[in-house]
C-alpha cells in the first residue's frame, strides 16, 4: 500500500481550494509527478484565503505578474506560455459593498448565485466584523488573513503614510509596549494625536536572533528579510534583553511630547521599575477586554474614516492581518490570533497606547466611564 505521494507518474492533477493548503507539499508532488508527460495538466481552483505566505498566494502573485506582462515586448519580462490564469476579483480601490462591483468577482451573479443572497451576506459583513472574512474571501475573492479577521487590510494599506519626525515632535504622544516572554517578538508603538484629531502611529520590533533556529524555515527567512530591511531588530542571544529594549525605546521617545509610557504588566515588573527610575511617566495597562475593546474600535473607526496614518512597517502590517476577534454579547472585542505563529504584538502595543490616548480625551468615545482608577491605573 502506498504511504507517500512521491514517485507518482500522472497525466493530470486537480487541486481544489488551493488556499486551504497549509504547505506547498502537494503542489510540489504534482509538479514533479507530471514531469515525464508531454501534455500534462495541473488545475487549481480556489477562492481567496487567509495565508499570504502560502502556496496559493504565491501562485496568485505569479499569475498577476504574467497577466501584467502579457503584451510587454521586453524579452526579460515574466513570460510563461504553459501557465494560464483567470482571476475573478474586485479591482484595487473598489468598494466591496457597492453592488456594481460584485459581478467582477461573480460572473454568474443572477444566474447561479442570487442577488438577494449577496445583499444579505453583504449587510451582515458590513455590520459584523467577524462575518467580513467569509464575505470577502468566498464571495469577492479578496484576500485577508486570520479566520475571523478583524481588519480590512485594503483600508489599512490606504492609511500608509510618510512624515518627518519634526512634524509630530510637538504633538501629544503615547508610547505602548508589549514585551515578549523572553523568546519571542517584542513591540513598541508610538501613537500621536494630531491637532486635527487624526492619529499617527510608528512601530518598532525586536526578537532574539538565536530564536530563529526554533522558527520554521519560512518564518526565519521572513524575519531575516525584515531585519535586513531595517524593520525587525535582532538582539543577541536566545532570549530578549529587556534592558536593551528599555534603553532603545527611551531614546526613541527622546525629544517627543511623551504623555505616558504604557505597558502590559505581564512579566514586566522590573522593566517598568527601570523605566520609572528614569523619571518617565509610566502606566500599567493589563490586556483585558475592558482596556482594549474601545481602543480597538477607535483605531478601526479612524482607519475607516481615513484619519489614521501609519508608517508602513511590513511587520506591523503582517501582524494587523493576523488579528482576529470574537465579539461578545455586549459587542466588546479583544485582539486574538488564530495560531501561535500569527504574531500580534505590534497591534497590542498600539491598542495599549491608544487606550491611554482615549483616557486622556483624545478620541471620540466616552472611554473614561469604562476605567476604574483603583484597578486599571498604576503610577510609579
From TrEMBL:
GO MF annotations, alphabetized: endonuclease activity
Entry superkingdom: Bacteria
Ranges where the Terminase large subunit-like endonuclease domain occurs: 79-358
Designated name of the protein: Putative phage terminase, large subunit
InterPro entries: TerL_ATPase, TerL_nuclease, Terminase_largesu-like
Terminase large subunit-like ATPase domain sequence ranges: 4-63
